[in-house]
Design a protein that fits this description.
There is one protein chain. It is built from 9 helices and 12 strands. It has 249 residues and is of the alpha+beta class. The protein has a 5-stranded mixed beta sheet. Strands 5, 6, 7 and 8 form a 4-stranded antiparallel beta sheet that branches. Strands 1-3-2 form a 3-stranded antiparallel beta sheet. Helix 6 crosses helix 8.
Length: 249
């Protein structure tokens, strides 16, 4: 959320890539920059400029040619954005990282709503702290997404579709039958609470509600220490995109 709102998605993307490449410190030369650029589908100049921004912002420390990415606990103090929920990310997610970030935040909104539904129905949370609610759809209005990311409704819709396109969420349209035929359209538009959200089907009027969204991501409760497991499992990463102390396994 912080990265998207503050236009630091690229910074965070490169920071995580550096974390994947090292266990604490790394010497970055032209070959390393080219490797990062090739794997993220960006140019070398982009990597160089954002590495310098990471150093300037103290997200990465530097001694001569040696770089050491800061822990998420350190970054949490800088951005002052605590969070208690984590989501898993792998190196492949870094290629379409903005879609991942948006999908994580929207997925956390879905998870929060779905968890509430589970509690109300006395189903409860899953065992061992896993709060995945991937099987449930919940309504998420574009206005909520716009509020979370501090963006326009147009951008909110665009963000949601980016996350859907790359498989981080699924979306279902949410229409309610009104029982009114087209002959009642004038009265409907005059007296309906929000007639602008109506749509005509073959023989009646239906009203559109916020899209139903289902997360395709795996969420877990945040622990004090979060492990980077290279290759298969990836990183357990936070929906707010910072706030975990990471230990390499």
């Amino acid at each position: 959320q912080y990265a998207v709102r503050n236009k630091k998605v690229r910074n965070l993307q490169i920071l995580l890539k550096v974390k994947f490449l090292c266990s604490g410190t790394i010497e970055i030369n032209n070959d390393t920059i080219k490797k990062i650029a090739d794997e993220l589908n960006v140019c070398s100049k982009t990597v160089e400029s954002h590495l310098q921004r990471l150093v300037d912002d103290k997200w990465i420390g530097k001694r001569l040619a040696t770089y050491y990415p800061r822990s998420f606990a350190y970054l949490e103090d800088i951005i002052k954005s605590p969070i208690n929920m984590a989501v898993e990310v792998g190196e492949n997610d870094l290629v379409n990282f903005k879609a991942f970030c948006v999908g994580a935040v929207i997925g956390n909104l879905v998870r929060s709503k779905a968890t509430g539904k589970k509690k109300n129905s006395e189903v409860g949370l899953q065992k061992r702290g896993n709060t995945s609610t991937a099987s449930l759809y919940s309504p998420v209005a574009n206005s909520v997404i716009a509020s979370v990311f501090d963006c326009s409704m147009y951008s909110a819709s665009k963000y949601k579709n980016i996350a859907r396109k790359h498989g981080y969420i699924k979306i279902r349209r949410n229409f309610e039958k009104t029982g009114l035929s087209k002959e009642h359209i004038t009265l409907f538009r005059k007296y309906a609470h929000d007639a602008s959200k109506c749509k005509f089907t073959k023989d009646q009027i239906v009203q559109r509600h916020p899209d139903l969204v289902k997360t395709q991501m795996c969420f877990k409760r945040r622990k004090k220490t979060i492990h980077i497991i290279r290759g298969y499992r990836g990183i357990l990463f936070l929906a707010a995109l910072f706030t975990a102390r990471i230990v390499v396994s």
